[in-house]
Records
---
Amino acid sequence: MEACWHKEPAHRPPFEHVLAQLEWMAEDHSGQEDWEGAVIFPAGEERLSMANELTVSEAVRQGYCISYSDLELGYKIGEGNYGTVFEGMYLSQKVAVKQLFVDGFSDRVLEEFHKEVQLMKRMDHENLVALLGVVEKVPKLLLITELMEKGSLWDWYHEEMRPRTLSAPRHLERALHLALDVAKGCRHLHEKHIIHRDLKSQNVWIHENGTAKVGDFGMSRVNNHNTMTMVGSPLWCAPEILRSERYDFTADVYSYSIILFEIFHWMEPYARMSVMQIMVAVTEHDERPEIDFEIPEEVCALICDSWHPDASQRPSFASLVERLECIIAMFRQELSTKQKRLSGREEAKQKRLSDTSKGKKNTQIPPLTPDSSGKQ
């Protein structure tokens, strides 16, 4: 109701959103998806079908500003360059709430920020964290996104033990799928002419089903000095950005190469170096993390191509997706061949054991029987 009578016409929700929200509340209160079955309609009036109506998240992307009264903040789950992240509840749905302090932001900065937010709302892809809406409650600005309960990729590999062997099929399969998920999300951003600018493992979020999703795209130009500028994290920053040179979409590809290193090595690169040492090594000596010999050759080539010092030589995300899909297909084929070979060896082993057992039975000395005289 508060949203419908908002003093700003632009903040009033469209009827599609109102209908979707009513449907959601009806399901929640009735405890069943087929809530219409419990509704008594006037005689002679057709029952309305809601099958073609928008979902709440889809309606929110059309520009609806979420009401603060519908939002409940929970406990703190993270903190980053742009604010503090809390778990929250929005109309009985778990969400992540990023809190930004905007007190002191100029009108121009806020206007640019809102442009970024509108852009983020339109990004609907399975490998991008969905932005559900925004709550403006001065001096705070709240960004509401879907909740990724497994946390970030950075948290995941720091909390889970590193595999004993990096060439283990189970680890490689997981790493390849994570790499493909991130590449698909970035490909979609680039197709929409969006440069992430701060792509890193802390901004790669893991869904409960294991899918990786890229988040915080569009937020990288909001820094701690309350200005819109080009920023990033030194560990993942392309050398051209560290040197304050002009950059383009390939800067994201460089950042992705470091994420690839993290995914396949399940560890942090440059672990024993300071930020300043990393910056000098990358910009002045073209140094990169050392790739382990256990990493497949095709993956090594992918990483090296992506962190090429010459930005123009780095592949596009469209190309990276194609190459990863080929690597995954090859990996599955090799795994299937190995399993068949092992199965064949096991069958041959069982056959040999069976034949040996039969042979022993055939060569056993028959028991003595009494002769005609009764002697043995």
Note: Residues 237 and 255 are 6 Å apart (CA to CA).
---
Amino acid sequence: MASKHPKPTAIKRAEGNRGKRPLPANEPQPQPGEPAMTPGLSAAAQKHWRRLCPLLLDMGVLTVADGDALGQLCEMLAINTDRLGEVRERRGNVNRRFAQFIALQGPLKRAMDGFGLDPSSRSRIAVAVKAKKEDEELSKPELRIAHGTTA
């Protein structure tokens, strides 16, 4: 069965281009770094943004082009947290709030997978680690490839 997402070019090169098909020559490579915060994020989503950016930068999977995807993830996390709180406190229509919480789990999981925020998705993301000098310890990871929304 074919994968939903194409295999990143960096992985194809690392595997020796087993399919022998031509690889894209001018594939965009966004710079690693923290993107500008998405305008219009709720206060709760901004908290998630400030929590996740340092984590994703340390993991080496965040680029300056990932602002919108990270913003969507943060908003989903904020809504998810709010719905769970409403269910726990039995505010409003609990059955409806719980249904909304459950309905958000699939999209939230896919968004988190794109950034490697669970163990199984991290196994599908490769980052290169470069040493500054041969005798120094390895530095922080440098972004090489990522699947999903952070290509």
Note: The helical segments are 9-14, 43-59, 67-89, 94-114, 119-122.
---
Amino acid sequence: MNDSELDALKDRVFDRASSDPEFRSKLLSAPREAVVEMAEQPIPEFIKFEAVEEKRNTVILMVPLLETEELSDDDLEAVSGGSKVGNAANNQIEKDKKKAKKTGVSWDEMKNPNMGTVGKFLSAAKGGGRRR
């Protein structure tokens, strides 16, 4: 699932939760199950979902990941586990690691979401992406 597909899914979930009380309740009690129900393709198990109910006079702040946080070996394995997206991302990760080594840039800097495809993929995989 790429960034635009994930954004489209988030929009559909948001719209449905705004108008369907049963779906809203399910989203709050079992967010992954509710989102998977609406997805048009499988969602890797390592991608987690959290739903927070908006309240009047309350601002919900999305705290960004620290650049030093990395996917676990299990998460990386799931990403590279045979899907076209996973294999492409894994190949790009290996290329970026080599590039980082050649240029003296740390792997953490290469993962920065503002630094290209791999950063965006890792950010999406760890829950980053567009905020509402």
Note: Residues 73-125 form one domain.
---
Amino acid sequence: MTIARFEVRWQHGVWMAMLGGFLFWGTFGALVILVLTNGFLTWYVSRSIIKPLGLLENAARKVGQGDLTPSVLPREGDEFGSVADVFDEMRIRLKDSLEAQSALEEDRRTWVASVSHDIRRQSRAQRSAPCGKRKRSRRNAVCRRTQYPYCFQG
């Protein structure tokens, strides 16, 4: 009876080639996985930053153009959410300020119209009054010639 003999001999070149191939392909595979993971994470993080920033930019452009209606702002619990809250508060205060300014402007116009009406009315009354008549005051009679010199130009 013969027993099969199995011998393993160390062949330096073969084992080194196998080990070198494993190291090369293992390193290459790890780098590919690392680059793909890095690309995905970069895309995800940049999207989570650029999207709320774009919404804030659009809202700022609308406010710059005079549109103070409520706009869609990011309502997340992070820094963008707090900036959006402050921006919305600023928009509301600006809207209130513009409404108050408009009301004051309307009051000013009404006052100017009223004063100009009173001035015109007094001017007409003075022009129509007879210039030679004397007006009684508390102390003494005042001549209309001294009070209204434009009546007597001649």
Note: The first helix runs from residue 12 to 64.
